[in-house]
């Protein structure tokens, strides 16, 4: 069995790299949104033209980014959504809802401080992890039936 995993959510820490590195040797391929914050924010106006109004600037970027996000989530077997400590990731909550609506296996990743705020998102998940190693352990178990040692 092989898994396609989409890694959604905060872009300010190395959690994606930890999961990819930890999953070395497993039959897993990873995809994610653009994690270069400036490129993600400015892609719409860089490609489609400048906007004087910040709303339309952001709107163009969100629409262009949604092409990649929708495709990545639709093609995934498992969607991991990370909620970081520092910023509110409204887009991550949207991605979790979209993945859930598509019937994707959903793993939510956040610290204990967010448990109450994310209780509805957590309720839609098949697993709620607190660190990237737990996500790797879930992927390893699903693919090999091996428990962590």
Q: Radius of gyration from the CA trace?
A: 16 Å
The portion of residues assigned to helices is: 40-55%
State the name of the first-level CATH class of the domain at 3-33 and 75-144: Alpha Beta
Q: Shape from CA axes?
A: globular
Biggest beta sheet summary = 5 strands, parallel
- The name of the CATH architecture of the domain at 3-33 and 75-144 is 3-Layer(aba) Sandwich
Pfam families: Nuc_deoxyri_tr3
Organism: Roseobacter litoralis (strain ATCC 49566 / DSM 6996 / JCM 21268 / NBRC 15278 / OCh 149)
InterPro entries: YtoQ_family_protein (IPR019884)
Protein name: YtoQ family protein
Quick recap:
This protein is an alpha/beta fold and 149 residues long. It has a domain at 3-33 and 75-144: Rossmann fold.
Provide structural commentary.
The chain has 149 residues and is of the alpha/beta class. The chain has a domain at 3-33 and 75-144: Rossmann fold. It contains six helices and five strands, in the order βαβααβαβαβα. Strands 2-1-3-4-5 form a five-stranded parallel sheet, sandwiched between helices. α1 (15-22) runs parallel beside α6 (132-144). It is globular, with a radius of gyration of 16 Å. The protein starts with a strand and ends in a 5-residue tail after the last helix.
